[in-house]
Every structure is written in C-alpha cells, then in structure tokens.
Amino acid sequence: IYTVPQSHCVVLERFGKFARIQPQGLRFRIPSLEVVRRVDNWGSVANKEGYFIELTEQQLDTPPRQCHTKDNVPVTANASVYWRITDPRRALYEVDVLPVAVSDLALNALRANIGTLDLDALLSERARLNERIASELSETATKWGVIFTRVEIQELTTDETIAASMVKQM
After folding, report:
1. Please, what's the b/e burial string for 108-139 (b: 16 or more CB within 10 A of its CB; e: otherwise)?
2. What secondary structure letter does DSSP report for 140?
3. What residues contact residue 148 under an 8 Å CB cut-off, 6+ apart?
C-alpha cells in the first residue's frame, strides 16, 4: 500500500509487460506479481523519486543551436518548450527517453523553420515562428502521449560581423 501524490501517476508492469496506470491517491499493488516501472533515465524531468510520473506542464530549455537562415546567415537559437504528458503508457513505451526526444524534436523543428526564413523575416516574425513550431511539434507528440502547449524562442543571436553590417544598413 502506498500513496501517489496529486498530479502524478505510477505505471505498473506484470511480468515485464504493461499492466495498469495508478492515478493519484491511496493505491496498492501485489508485490510478487507487479513491479513499478522506473523512469530514472528521464533525469529530474517529469518524474519524482524515479517512479512517480508528473502529469503537470513541464518546461524544458533547449541548448543553443547553430542554424542558418534562408539567406545563409548563421544564427544561434535557443527555445523553451512547454509540454505535458497526457498518456503515460505511450510516454514510456513509444519513445526511448522522453525528455531527450522532446528536446531534440523541438531543436530540429526550430532549425527547420529558421531555415525557411531570411534574417529580416526571422527577427520580425518571432511570434508567428513560435506558433508554427508548436503546431509542427503537436503532430509527432500525439504518438508519444504528449501535448506541446507552447514554444517560445528565448534568444536569437548572430555573430558580431552580421550585427555590425545590420547597424550599417539601418
């Protein structure tokens, strides 16, 4: 007998196969038959104590990544991704390490969308770019049991020579 905290759940496996999801509240399991599925490989993202899966909205900062715009200007981009697990079964069994996959998917979508715009459009249409990336991510996320609530580009930087030439052009 154990307690599952609010906004969390626990996944139980019976003989190595998915058995059931236990939501918040006072719960029990059969120790000799059922094993709690651990998510230690997720790190500290979307889990508590290695086996309680968080169902609340999560925020993930992506590392900066070098991208090139349509007019071949190198830009370093960084984004925050806000997401929530809707189906713990899919989140565990449809993707290897969910937080890493979410980060990689967001960075790849960011890089692909930056590549379709030139530098001026990129700097002026930041909000629209956030919406395009979020809608693109939602297609893949349904397979993983995840909903992307929003994506926000935190930083777009260019090297000093590009910034100096933009100031001259102004």
Report:
1. ebbeebbeebebeebeeeeeebbebbbebbee
2. H
3. 81, 82, 83, 134, 137, 138, 141
* First and final C-alpha spacing in the chain: 68
Each residue of 61-84: pLDDT tens digit?
A: 888 888 888 888 888 888 899 999
- The CA dihedral of 123, 124, 125, 130, to the nearest 10 degrees, is 50
Residues 6+ apart with CB under 8 A from 58: 45, 46, 82, 83, 84, 85
- What was the pLDDT predicted at 26? 95
pLDDT of residue 150: 87
Q: Of 125, 122, 79, nearest to 102 (Cα)?
A: 79
For residue range 14-32, list pLDDT tens digits in order. Answer: 998 999 999 999 999 988 8
Element (H, E) at 54: strand 52-54
CA-derived radius of gyration, the chain: 20
